[in-house]
Amino acid sequence: MSHAFAKDSRACAACVSWGGERVLSDDNTLVRVARHGVEGECRTASSQDYRKVTKGYHTCATWAPLPMLKKHGGRLGHAPVTAASSVPRAATPPAAAASAVKASLAAAVAVLEAEPPPPCRADPLDVDQTPQVRVLYTHWLRLRRKRAIPLATEIDTAQVRETVPRICLMEPTADGADFVYKSCGRALQRRLSMRPTTRLVTECHPEQAAQRWLGDLRACLDSGEPRCLMVRDDPMLPGVRFVELLLPLADVEGGRATRVLAYRHVPGG
Predict the structure, then answer these.
(1) Full-prediction pTM beyond 0.85?
(2) DSSP labels for 189-255?
(3) What stretches of the chain adopt beta strand conformation (E)?
């Protein structure tokens, strides 16, 4: 926006330019300024990113119409920009406010019940053109060499340390109907409601998402080829898409795939 914040009071630059002494509220967001017998209030809002203000606005109805002084960042011919909340609002009775909140909550619940969540789906990706999985995939290719499938015991987590929080080792059940979490990284555990190690996929994920993932795990196991997917609308990360890499592994030299090393590029570590 066009108004910068003063470091000492977090007031907008218009208040700093034209206001007198400023008094902070207890929550350090409300700044009162007075000059020439006129008082105004400025409630500032900002988003912090590594101690750097990335977004901000002010709501001062008294000093905002005044142009900022040049020494405070003002530009000639530039009109100040204010938030919509700078216009004073009439006070709402407590009973009316409570009923309005209840009505809005009821409407939100009705909308959520009427609209089921979108189905979880996964679209194939070119693994060679997906930078998120390059480290783990390169390690898997190096182990495979001229063989069809590398051994599970050959995976060296020290060489793929940055991917460890997001990988899990999956093993099919005896009947092949489900998969068991043999191990699970910390970033994935945070996204689940329970500790997944030694548990079935159907126990840790909603039904629709579990069936989607089981289908991809079986396809990777049966084909013996890596699969790279773009997963959308998974309940583990609602509204966010992420990259998933499935790598087949064998237990004996020259044997068929018996396990799947799954990498899910979710936020966190």
Answers:
(1) no
(2) HHTSSS--TT-BHHHHS-HHHHHHHHHHHHHHHHH-S-EEEEEES-TTSTT--EEEEEEEEESSTT-
(3) 22-24, 30-35, 38-43, 45-49, 52-57, 121-124, 167-172, 179-184, 227-232, 242-250, 257-264
Tokens of 23: 């008094």
Range with lowest mean pLDDT among 104-113, 144-153, 195-204, 230-239: 104-113
**Three-class secondary structure of residue 52 per DSSP:** strand
Cβ atoms of 189 and 165 within 8 Å: the answer is no
Instruction: Give SS3 for 30.
Output: strand
What is the number of residues in the chain? Answer: 269
Q: CA 200 → CA 81, 98, 191, 218, distances in Å?
A: 56, 45, 16, 14
Q: Which residue has the tokens 């003002």?
A: 74
Per-residue pLDDT reduced to its tens digit, 108-167: 555 445 566 688 889 999 999 999 999 999 999 999 988 889 999 999 999 999 999 999
Q: Where are the alpha helices (DSSP H) in 145-206?
A: 186-190, 201-204
Name the token pair of 196: 């997944």
* CB-based contacts of 103, cutoff 8 Å, min separation 6: none
